[in-house]
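Severity: low
Component: inverse-folding endpoint
Summary: output formatting inconsistent between runs
Steps to reproduce: submit the following structure tokens with default settings.
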């Protein structure tokens, strides 16, 4: 279950029900919609206006973490895969197919994810941090770093600096 409250009064504004497993994360798409992910292997887009589920997107394993911007939803899954969905010209959400699937590697769960403009950063269960961005052909690719970006333990939180030039991580 998801509860949205008024930040000034604290009063409940809307309750969202529909996931059949624990809801792990949510993000605002804009002032009128939120997106959530769950153990039930689904991503749901909700209307703030009437509480309706506008769209259900499916994944192959439980979805642990989610991030969004105006036209992209990024989801980190238990199987280590990162799913990207984009708003197409007809206003519907569709999965972005990459030449090589985005993942944490070695099947380790994606524990946290952040999206800023056209950059995506994912934290993995083994402490690895991976950065992705679209190339000239709009295919999302990993930006390699030497040595690889790592923290001690699971990556629990990631965030971009306001201008998007730095990434902070916690473990």
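Observed output (run 2 of 3):
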């Amino acid at each position: 279950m998801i509860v949205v409250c008024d930040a000034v009064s604290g009063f409940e504004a809307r309750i969202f029900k529909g996931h059949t497993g624990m809801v792990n994360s949510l993000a605002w798409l804009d002032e009128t919609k939120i997106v959530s992910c769950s153990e039930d292997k689904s991503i749901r887009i909700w209307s703030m206006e009437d509480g309706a589920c506008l769209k259900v997107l499916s994944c192959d394993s439980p979805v642990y973490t989610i991030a969004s911007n105006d036209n992209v939803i990024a989801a980190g899954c238990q199987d280590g895969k990162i799913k990207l969905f984009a708003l197409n010209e007809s206003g519907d959400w569709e999965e972005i197919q990459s030449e090589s699937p985005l993942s944490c590697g070695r099947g380790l769960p994606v524990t946290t994810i952040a999206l800023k403009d056209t950059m995506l950063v994912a934290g993995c269960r083994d402490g690895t941090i991976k950065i992705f961005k679209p190339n000239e052909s709009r295919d999302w690719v990993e930006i390699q770093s030497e040595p690889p970006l790592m923290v001690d333990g699971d990556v629990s939180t990631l965030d971009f600096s306001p201008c998007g030039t730095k990434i902070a991580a916690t473990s």
